[in-house]
């Protein structure tokens, strides 16, 4: 009888360990108004694209930036909208040149970045499902905080927005 129980225990162990080919349902949360979409984590690969983009911007490597920018809508923190790599680079270079003329500090520290993506949609008009979105926060050399969203599709930036605010007292004491 002991051998019988041992045999079935071993069979049960082998069977339970053999199911290594299962896939888990994507975990999502949140919502997108007007759709049945939720939000899920994106990939580290998209964060790596963002890191290359951020490094090129910091180094003012405008040719690399242009190579990573497609056509789209790029909303700068002052409300100006650019729509392609040439316009985007002209705008950010203008800001850089202005900082040189006024003696303002230029540069930033990237505080964090992560990638997310909306779940699939039945609506073919929903363009937010293309690529992935990176959310990043920066502390500028000027002491301001920048909150930005980047939509990358196949390694190209197609949507971007930047918002600027002053550093709060709580943030100053925790840095």
Keywords:
175 residues; alpha+beta; Nuclear Transport Factor 2, Chain: A
Written description of the protein model:
This protein is α+β, with helices and mostly antiparallel strands. The chain has one domain: Nuclear Transport Factor 2, Chain: A (Roll). The chain contains 5 helices and 7 strands. The protein has helices at residues 2-18, 44-58, 62-67, 85-102, 169-174; strands at residues 39-41, 69-75, 81-82, 108-118, 132-140, 144-153, 156-166. β6 (144-153) and β7 form a beta hairpin. It is globular, with a radius of gyration of 23 Å.
CATH topology: Nuclear Transport Factor 2, Chain: A
Mean pLDDT: 85
Number of E-state strands: 7
Strand line-up in the sheet with most strands: 1-4-5-6-7-2-3
Q: In CATH terms, what is the architecture?
A: Roll
State the low-pLDDT regions, or none: 3-11, 13-17
Question: For the CA atoms, what is the radius of gyration?
Answer: 23 Å
| CATH class (first level) name | Alpha Beta
Distance between the termini: 67 Å
- The 3D shape can be described as globular
Count every helix, treating DSSP H or I runs of 4 or more residues as helices.
5
Order of helices and strands: HEHHEEHEEEEH
How many strands, which pairing sense, and closed or not: the largest β-sheet? 7 strands, mixed
Helix content: 25-40%
Please indicate the percent range of residues in DSSP E strands (runs of 2 or more).
25-35%
């Amino acid at each position: 009888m002991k051998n019988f129980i041992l045999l079935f225990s071993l069979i049960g162990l082998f069977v339970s360990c053999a199911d290594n080919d299962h896939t888990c349902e994507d975990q999502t949360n949140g919502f997108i108004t007007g759709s049945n979409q939720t939000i899920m984590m994106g990939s580290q690969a998209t964060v790596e694209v963002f890191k290359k983009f951020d490094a090129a911007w910091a180094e003012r490597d405008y040719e690399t930036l242009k190579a990573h920018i497609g056509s789209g809508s790029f909303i700068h923190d002052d409300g100006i909208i650019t729509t392609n790599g040439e316009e985007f680079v002209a705008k950010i270079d203008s800001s850089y040149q202005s900082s040189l003329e006024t003696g303002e500090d230029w540069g930033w520290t990237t505080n964090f970045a992560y990638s997310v993506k909306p779940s699939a949609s039945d609506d073919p008009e929903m363009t937010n499902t293309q690529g992935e979105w990176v959310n990043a926060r920066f502390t500028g050399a000027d002491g301001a905080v920048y909150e930005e969203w980047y939509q990358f599709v196949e390694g190209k930036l197609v949507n971007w927005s930047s918002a600027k605010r002053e550093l709060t007292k709580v943030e100053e004491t925790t840095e």
